[in-house]
Amino acid sequence: MAKWNVSGSYFEACNCDVACPCVFLSAPTEGECGVLLAWHVDSGRYGDVPLDGLNVALAAHAPGHMLKVKWDVALYLDERASPAQKEALGTIFGGQAGGEPAALGPLVGKVLGVRSTKIEFEAKGKHRTLRIPDVAEMEIEGLQGQGGKDVTLERVPFTAVPNQTTVVAKSKRLSLHDHGWNWEVSEKNGFYSPFSFTGP
Question: Does the pLDDT of residue 200 top 90, yes or no?
């Protein structure tokens, strides 16, 4: 197994109210959870394969408490990636390469698909946006806390980005239409943070 590392910017939105109770090991506010996760790799390598500047997204649906049911997931890989880069991204973010992403592996029941597609990712100030043409749009904005500072969480027990300070946000839009999913929500939960993963 090749040694690898990736770091950059992460954000997500889901159908739970702010702040999502799933990260505190509680049931989702709507009885089930639909979440879209997105990563922009600022720098990274899988063995000798560079991964700088590439994007990845993962959609997941959990039909109940996220730690008590199996998820359906779909993975989206940056179409700009070479075949070697796509294989590396799929291996890392699919959890097969060990490291932090592998922790979600036991929760996955079914992989509905892995798609190479255009992924537009933008992080600017308190705003984060993602667009996958004809599939998904996601936009969140960090909540303003006391004194105009970010509202943050640390050391939450359940997260896709461990060991990071997470900013609490609210969605302007989460839209996803793929694999029979038809999500259209707004004013719901969002999170963003840096990420840094290594393996195996």
Answer: no
